[in-house]
Design a protein that fits this description.
- The chain is an all-alpha fold and 152 residues long.
- Among the domains are: 47 residues; 34 residues.
- 57% of the residues lie in helices and 0% in strands.
- The chain has seven helices and no strands.
- α1 crosses α2 and α2 packs across α3.
- The longest helix has 17 residues.
- It starts with 8 loop residues before the first helix and ends in a 21-residue tail after the last helix.
């Protein structure tokens, strides 16, 4: 009877950091914070490889399974599920970038007078665009500026 492998405290901490900080910390940074100080990048690669081998997770298998789920959903007419599977494939393949913008200012914090001033500034700054009188100045290629001298 073989004894089941147990995770060490460092391995558990690495896994927790990797999951909780997904996208904010690299696997090497998670390994370093978990206590793998001397070679965190190598440790992260080894730990992740173990998980992939244990559960049979590979990039190709993951994409293939998502494609199968998409195709099955399409056959059943479950378009939302099919689209979600295809989007998941795109994310796994690196076609999408999740981006979060954190805005520090908010119009909710402005008084009515401050809002009116801000709107007046916007109208003044973009008057030509709003009124349709903006003109683009284009210099033709054959024209040369008058202040440049010919070099001999």
């Amino acid at each position: 009877m073989t004894q089941e492998k147990r995770l060490t405290e460092r391995q558990i901490k690495f896994a927790e950091l990797l999951v909780y900080n997904e996208g904010r910390l690299s696997p090497a940074e998670c390994a370093h914070q978990a206590g793998y100080v001397t070679r965190p990048r190598q440790a992260a690669a080894e730990l992740r490889k173990e998980v992939q081998e244990k559960y049979g997770i590979t990039f190709e298998r993951h994409l293939t399974e998502l494609a199968k789920l998409r195709d099955d959903a399409m056959k059943k007419g479950a378009w939302a599920a099919a689209i979600n599977a295809e989007v998941a494939r795109g994310k796994a393949g690196g076609l999408y970038v999740d981006q979060k913008l954190i805005m520090t200012g908010s119009i909710d914090n402005l008084s009515e007078q401050e809002l009116e001033e801000r709107m007046k500034d916007i109208l003044k700054d973009h008057k030509d665009i709003i009124e349709g009188t903006a003109v683009d100045i284009v210099q033709e290629e054959s024209e040369t500026p008058k202040n440049l001298k010919k070099l001999n």
